[in-house]
Amino acid sequence: MEKSIIVKNITKKYKLYNGTKERMLDLILPKSYGEDFYALANVSFEANKGDVVGFIGINGSGKSTLSNIIAGIVPETSGTVKVNGQVALIAVSAGLKGDLSGRDNIELKLLMLGFSKEEIKSLEPEIIEFSELGKFIDQPVKSYSSGMKSRLGFSISVNVDPNILIIDEALSVGDKAFAEKSLAKMKEFKNQGKTMVFVSHSIGQMKQFCDKILWLEYGMVKDFGTVDEVIPKYEKFLNEFKKLSGKEKEKYKAEGMKRQQEILMALH
Prior knowledge:
The chain is an alpha/beta fold. 44% of the residues lie in helices and 25% in strands. It has a single domain (3-85, 163-267), classed as Rossmann fold (3-Layer(aba) Sandwich), CATH 3.40.50.300. Helix 3 (102-112) crosses helix 4 (117-131) and helix 4 (117-131) packs across helix 5. The longest helix has 22 residues, at 246-267.
């Protein structure tokens, strides 16, 4: 099988600072200031051409960070990502400029993707029609609701015909009818053999749409396999996790962060 995405030992470190002073001291002094926070620790997985891979995990598990790294928006701290094809990221308002109108955003995004003026002219009506934004297309994007921004972002991305599509919670906002239309478009892409990464809290959408599931927990791979293998385990975990008290959830997180540290120590 031809590989579409190869993610190998990806780690992403951020610095958490107590205010601007600490940030400035970290820039100018040799002593390290701020606290290291690892959004991802040694994450690896592969997707074949035509795979639809769902990213699951409780909030703060690193799903969006990994999506952004695969899309080339955020750089990894260490490890490697190889993608074979053009990637489009669809996230709520990803890459949209608030001061510009919807129409201007379409033109800017397509120019940045290397489309000619003629190509933009022919694509624009299709994008506007798919977005169902009507006369709002000429209003500034900052006046849009999150659902409208998501529609615009989705409409641009699906109409530029990418090889690899990353959908990050983009179907969780806005109306049900548009979500259905978007899922139909994604099914069309799946039938065309395009590779997709799907980030969602909707287990129903995952079951309906994905072939494989990557389960992340506190920046680490908890499990990776087929929908039938991973989803039942995740549903069982969620049921148990929801029953935990606030204190028990904190303890579970502390144990997860300790495991993360052990992995990172073993790497160095």
